Amino acid sequence: MPGNDEQPTSMSTTVSEDASSDAESSSDRCNSITSASDFDCSRQSFTSDCSSSKHSSPSSSPPKTITLDDVMSSARDLSNLTLAHEIIVNRDFHVEQPHLSQNSLEKQVKDIVHKAFWDSLESELNDDPPEYEHAIKLLEEIREILLSFLSPGANRLRTQILEVLDMDLIRQQADKEAVDIQGLASYIVTIMSKLCAPVRDDEVKKLRESPDYVVSMFKEIFRVLDLMKMDMVNFTIQSLRPDLQRQSVEYERAKFQSVVEKTPSALDHTTEWIKSSLEEVLFSMPTVEQPNGHGKAGKALPSPFLVFNSGFIRLLTWDYHKSPLPETLMTDEVRLRELQRRLQLLKAVASVLLIVYSAIGGPISGLPALAERLKRMTSVLLEGIHSPDFNLSEALGNVSGQICCELNKSLTERNYPALPPELQVTLKGQITSITQENNPIRSLLEGRVQQYFRVLLATPNSHVNLPPMPGGLALIQPELTSLAVTFVSLVNFNKQVYSPFYMMILKTLLFSNEAPPPAATAPQDPSIQNPVNSK
């Protein structure tokens, strides 16, 4: 473990991360899912390799009986995959000590066991003559913890710790009642001050100022050592993150392949997800005459990236109560849920602002400060919109009232007449009506948001030259752009890892029963065939 000046400070945990995306600015390529460049794809695109790596092509095996060992092994692989993925994509990921509820059974048992141990230690040290058995065990444990903190090159400090905390010598001193427990504790605190992270300096300083009561000092030493162990783990995570990121695609793909081989049903939900997306794309595609000379009409072969991107777009409105996520997206469920919640709030805010600016028009146009106040006010009042018990109608009523007050204030300050009562009533009615599922404003913005996300998914390098924002979304452009870039980054990384599995499933769905109709060739999405690392 690095010394005091090398330790990282504590980090705060968040569920979302800022990442760059791999989409580009041209929106023309994704204006319609029925364009020729979207649905035409050569048969070669389904048979070409997705990667040159040995793990790029997932293997399939015949059905077999699943044993308990297979289940446990798959659980370990999935746990390792989840942990590695979290370290890679969540820059703020860190380990914290568990905080037990004060009234929990676990906390009560832990307190009882610890109290019994420390009472036993106190009783032994107060005996005449003192008994040092437990104290020596504690010193030995502390020595091992301190040694575990040392970097491989810290030989001098390692030798010093082994000499001072020489268990054989301490046992001999204990037999002669010559052990200086207080002196050893002070030495331990000194070593801790050299090894701890800067964030623990105050904690170690308190150890120096603690009373000379040995049992209390040992209690505090172990408490601070537990904190230092967490710092060590988090420092290790930080150190490993660059290496994990370089090998992340191959590692995650290999781990998931291991799970698939041991669990035949490991891709069931993913298959249903791709099947639904394929059906959606095929339904939207026009019927074309087959170029086989027979003059028969049929569906062209859809491009893989169009099918997969349509599936990813569906995640924006995914109903987690009705359908579980595809297995390939389980490691990102927390991020996807958070993204969906934020997007739901943004769409509601955009709907309200579009209604307001359409109804009032010129008198409030060109006032960015007013627009920002209205947006912030609406966002605060609609916070928690994703909650099942959130009363959206009531909240929108409050929003309309506050907006009318803010508008009247702004209008009168600039010598405009206040809003007529009938206009305020109309405005309130239009705002509260967005709770209706088929509300035209709601449907319009929902379609434009999906169009914007679809453009970002379909084109490279959009983080450099972002595509134009669709009409009606300009007031939430900064927030929506940030959200879209995060989503695209997440999707692109998922494609890198799991595109071989997706291609295998899609080929099975298209070609398992009958030969597909010939289709004109079209360029395949580079993010599927040769995905670019978005990290």
From TrEMBL:
Residues 1-15, 524-535 have a biased composition (Polar residues). Belongs to the TCP11 family. Residues 45-63 have a biased composition (Low complexity). Pfam families: Tcp11. This is T-complex protein 11-like protein 2 isoform X4. The gene is LOC106576448. Residues 1-67, 516-535 are annotated as: Disordered. Signal peptide: none annotated.
